[in-house]
Amino acid sequence: MGLTAIEKILARYGLDITRTTLATWMIRLGELILPLINLLHESQVSYDVMQMDETTLQVLKEQDRAAQAKSRMWVRRGGAPDKPVILFDYEPTRSGSVAWRLLEDFKGILQSDGYAGYIAVGKRDGIRHVGCLAHARRKFDEALKAQKEHGRGGLAAEGLALIQKIYRVEKIARETKLAPDKRKAFREQHARPIWTELRKWLDAKRRHAPPQSLTGKAMTFLDNQWPLLIGYLEDGRIEADNNLLSRSANID
Q: Which residues does 201 contact at the CB level (< 8 Å), separation at least 6?
């Protein structure tokens, strides 16, 4: 809610408080809450698993920037599993330098989507980078929807079906509330064979999809992200995707 809207709401109750005063209060509130944010950050980086994503944000009246310019809200989810901490940071840019700065104090497992801005952080000492299966699934889903408009399913349907089999394994592991070590063993028994099947399918079928088609792009993404996507199999604490972060932060 903007200051103009707050100003109008207060006016309806007979409170004549200027926007300048409201802005001063907001700045002061930000100063007062900073120690709490610092404590939350310390709690977040004390645990060695972190999810990170960013989403677009439009700021209409920002100095030296057009109203149509896209800014970013960077979101991190980490901390103890029973007390997760979610922090939001506004930045006018999507530069990888933002991810580097926000994760400067973190060591452990970083889970992100395939955005190149996370690559440098993922290679830093003390960081193990894993991927987000939801983004791979989304690309096959988009390709399948496009193909269905032309009355066919083909390779997109095949790839999506295999990915959905992996998600069914995850659903069982989640519903049975397996401890991390048992979750890892369960995935090793039930999910890894599907990944092996998916790898064989990708190697055999990739050349049949035009590289610039949606299916071709989905297959290329899957191939490029493969080492990161299968990283979750090595630790039962890690999710297969960033959906926990997306749902809790209400981002795409």
A: 158, 159, 162
For the entire predicted model, the pTM comes to 0.85
Of 26-35, 74-83, 141-150, which gets the smallest average pLDDT? Answer: 141-150
Percent residues over pLDDT 70 in the chain: 94
pLDDT at 150: 54
Asked if 226 and 135 touch (Cβ cutoff 8 Å), the reply is no
CA distance 189 to 22: 58
Q: Which residue has the tokens 């944010």?
A: 37
3-state secondary structure 21-78: HHHHHHHHHHHHHHHHHHHHHHHHHCCCEEEEEEEEEECCCECCECCCCEEEEEEEEE
First and final C-alpha spacing in the chain? 21
For residues 14 and 238, the model is more confident at 238
User: Three-state SS for 217?
Assistant: helix
Query: Beta strands 70-78 and 127-130: pairing type?
Result: unpaired
**pLDDT one-digit tens code per residue, 134-167:** 999 999 999 999 876 555 668 999 999 999 999 9
What residue type is assigned to position 247 of the chain?
A: R
Task: Tell me which residue of 233, 55, 223, 50 sits closest to 139, measured CA to CA.
Answer: 223
Tokens representing 28? 């002061």
